[in-house]
Amino acid sequence: MNLSDGEKTFILHGVEMNFRVDGREREDYRPMELELDVVSHAFGSARLRLANTDVLVAVKIEVDTPFPERPMEGKIEFFVDCSANATPNFEGRGGEDLAIELSNCLASAYSSNEALDLTKLCIMKGKKCWKLYVDILLLEVGGNLYDAVSIAVKSALWSTQVPKIKALNVDGSNVDIQVLDDIHSCTKLDTPGAPLMVTLCKIGEKCVVDPDVAEEQCSSGAVVVSVSKGNISTILQTGTGSFHPDTLKDCLKLGVNIAEKLETVLLKTLNEIQPNQDIGFLK
Question: Rounded to the nearest 10 degrees, how much is the dihedral formed by the CA atoms of 273, 274, 276, 280?
C-alpha cells in the first residue's frame, strides 16, 4: 500500500483531532477474535485475528537438559515464520529480518522469571527439564504485529498443558522419565506475568495504539513497550524517527496503562472461552 501525500495529511489531521480514519480514538484497538486449542498435536495453541492481522501460535514441549548456569530452570524458545501469503513483502527472504526481530523481542520479554516461572519446568536439577517451543506463524499482516503476536503467545501459553511426571529412573548419568498416561492429568502453566506488548506509533505530535498499515506508513517512529505485572520488561524502538525525552516518557506511561487494561480484558476472555469456541473482544 502506497499512500499519496494527501492521504497521509488526512490521516495526520485525523490523529491530531483524536478521530482516526476508521472511527477510533488514539487509544482504541480494532476488534479482535481469539480461538484456543486450534492445533491438535500441540500442547497449547491460539489463533488471534486483530482486524486484518492473523497470527497462529502453537506450543510444543520436549525434555531437554537445563543450562549449566540455570540448573533449576526449564527453557523457552521462540520461532517466527513469516508466511509468504501474509504480505508480498515476505516473498523470498523478505520476512527474515522481521522474524528475527520478533523472536529476539519475545526472548527478551520472557527472560525474567517474573514473566514466566521457568523453575516449574525443572524435572531434575541439572539433569532434565521441560523445554517449550513456541512456534508463531504470521498468516496475514494488517498492522500492529507486535501486539497481536504477544496476545496470541500469552493465550497459547495460558492454554498449554505440561505433562505430569509418573516416575524418574536414574542410572548413572542416564535419566529415564515416565509421564502419566492420562492426557487429562496435566499442569497448566502459570502465566499471569506473561508480558503483553503495546505499540505506540508517533504520527505528527501524537501517539496512537494499534496502528493499521496506513497509519504505520504515516509514522515517523514507534515504540514497542513490553509490560509484565505492571512493569516494563522490554522497550524496542522501530522506524527512523526520534522521540523527545518528555514524549518518550509519556509514551511509556501510556503503554503501561494500555497493557494493564488489555490484560484485564484478555484474562476475562480466556476464562470465558469454552472448548472449540472462538470469541471476539474489544469490539
Answer: -30
Number of Cα atoms under 13 Å in the Cβ half of residue 112: 15
- Judged by DSSP in three states, 233 sits in strand
Q: Is 224:246 a contact under the CB 8 Å cutoff?
A: no
Q: Taking a C-beta distance cutoff of 8 angstroms, is the pair 79, 131 a contact?
A: no
Residue partners of 100: CB distance under 8 A and separation at least 6:
80
What Cα–Cα distance (Å) separates residue 187 from each residue in 48, 184, 192?
A: 24, 9, 15
pLDDT in tens, 193-225: 999 999 999 898 889 999 998 898 888 889 999
pTM of the model: 0.90
| pLDDT tens-digit series, residues 19-32 | 998 899 999 999 99
Place of cell 506473561: 194
